[in-house]
Task: structure prediction
Amino acid sequence: MLTERQKRILWAICEDYIESAEPVGSRSVSKKDDVGFSAATIRNEMADLEEMGFLEQPHTSAGRIPSQQGYRFYVDHLLTPQIWGDEEIHAIHNLFQKDTTHIEQAIEHTSELLSQLTNYTSVVIGPKLQDHRLRHLQMIPLTEHSAVFIIVTDLGHVNQQRVLLPEGMSISVMERLVNLLNKRLQGISLSKLRLVVERDLTDELTRYVAEYGNMIFLLDQMLAPQQENRIYTSGTTKMLDQPEFRDLHKMKSLLDLLDGKNQSIIQLLNSSPSSGVQVKIGNETSIEGANHISLIIASFTLDSESIGAIGVLGPTRMEYAKVIGLMDIISKDISKRLTEFYEK
Amino acid sequence: MLTERQKRILWAICEDYIESAEPVGSRSVSKKDDVGFSAATIRNEMADLEEMGFLEQPHTSAGRIPSQQGYRFYVDHLLTPQIWGDEEIHAIHNLFQKDTTHIEQAIEHTSELLSQLTNYTSVVIGPKLQDHRLRHLQMIPLTEHSAVFIIVTDLGHVNQQRVLLPEGMSISVMERLVNLLNKRLQGISLSKLRLVVERDLTDELTRYVAEYGNMIFLLDQMLAPQQENRIYTSGTTKMLDQPEFRDLHKMKSLLDLLDGKNQSIIQLLNSSPSSGVQVKIGNETSIEGANHISLIIASFTLDSESIGAIGVLGPTRMEYAKVIGLMDIISKDISKRLTEFYEK
DNA sequence: TTTTAGCACTCAACTAACTAGAGTGCTAAC
DNA sequence: GTTAGCACTCTAGTTAGTTGAGTGCTAAAA
Result:
């Protein structure tokens, strides 16, 4: 266990390094108001802290920087989340404006605001379509051979699907099919639609529609796996301002990470606990080669069920106190607004 | 006008520089098979070409590199577009697979393929929703106070709009309203919907709906300006491989350009002529600070009307011959497939 | 026993001087 | 008109030297 003095020193080093990005020497620690000891004393303590794994030395004659373990301790026990002012809270309240008609829009704004206020890269993942429940099905013929098939969910999301019509199936038969599905599939989550049809409705359907093959052909198209939930990124270039990403190679792997194809960030966001702010430091993110990256995540909820997450990506040397404070406010506020939005 | 020999020299310098990214000296030009003159002769010609503005010298004792004007001449008169092999053409044909249900999907794949085959960053802009024509309107109540309003267009695109229902307006009235709009607005382009309602339907509508204020409130929400057409970017990180973007500052402004908020690329894509491949070099892009960037664009069409564009972004020193050849094939192929797709 | 002052030592980062080499422009010969 | 030869220019890379921030250790002070 660390002594009070060691904690204070570790805290001072973290704060200093986070601000300056330069290894912190014993002298500058001892000059801090809160730490009333000489540089020599600090040096001894620093040597101990290094031995315990909380600090690192880039090279012999440099100052110390916090190790991953050091940041962990700082985040868990030493920092006090920043309290944000009225102005920022006001901006957050405005995310859901009166005329917000798509949640996607609000989510995108959230991402932008998050990046703007923190000066880091933000990542936001929206409600998972698969978990929505079916509200309404509709088929709208387009040409002789194609139609648009629309799925409206309980949360007001609309999913479109273009389908090819099987040869020789009359419009009226298809309409009957859709009507039946509409009656029987109400309230089923989208991910289970296909399953329920297969399990419970096959008999009934074959009674309506003679050509079984054609019907399956149509159903498969209509209820095809919906697109994955989109990820919103903002402020990608902010990373370039961080001295640790001056290196082109690191920069490139970071950009690749954000390029969308990579699923690891999405997985991390999806795995965030439904309440509170979670901090993943360095390889805790379990992203390969992400030793210099930290990710701070928080969920937002609807009826206390987690339906999405916001995240801020920065160097391990990021301003945890500031970001954690902000994420706490934002995630709670979004949850509140979402509930209002859907209750209206 | 340039002599044949000068053209051959300019050509050689362009090809060499595009491949090596190093200023080209007189010796390496004279060693090329096609150019049978000594280094000294080449030097004289190079001095002339520089005076005419086709070449530049980074510093006194370096070789020459093509100027913007030089590239322009190279693109317009010297290069021969690369003929692509069966393998690539096959990949292009596969962009529209049998199970393609969203055009967006095909567009995204196009963008990815373009970037993969060229090793540059690709930008693709899809059909402008505003130009689609109305096919079908539908209103689906969600809660007591809100509904989802769906617009289906002639190209099978579905647009959703969440609307707040005005207090005290009965569902049946609203249904009548929607029915009327459905009859009267068929075939009108989305951008003109609101206008047409105001101009031609106000009288008729007031006869149906007593509360004029509430109706306007509803209409404004339903026919609100649709979202801008999305831009698809692929291979952003490919730019990092180009030596001219080693510089962090240039890199940052480039990434900001691609970040989506910036409209200049969209404008350029929208302004591309409906047939043929167009090359914008350096400040011809009229993007501020884009002296080292070139953009190659081509439209794709539906019924010989331009409905979108593909673009490849690279350094001015990009492989024009390769990219131009590819874009020509792809844009034509997409147009063909799109027509097939919508005729089905 | 704990803390501090002093001092020798280390090492990255910067600077200046030097070198190598690629390429030029000019001149004179072919 | 073309080419060989040569002096000149300028960048990039290397080496050696200097500076300064910071450390670890020791011995004295509290």
Notes: Residues 320-343 of chain A form the longest helix (24 residues). Chain A has three domains: 4-78, 86-128+229-343, 130-222. Residues 37-41, 44, 58-62 of chain A lie near DNA strand C (CB under 10 Å from a C1'). The longest strand of chain A covers residues 305-315.
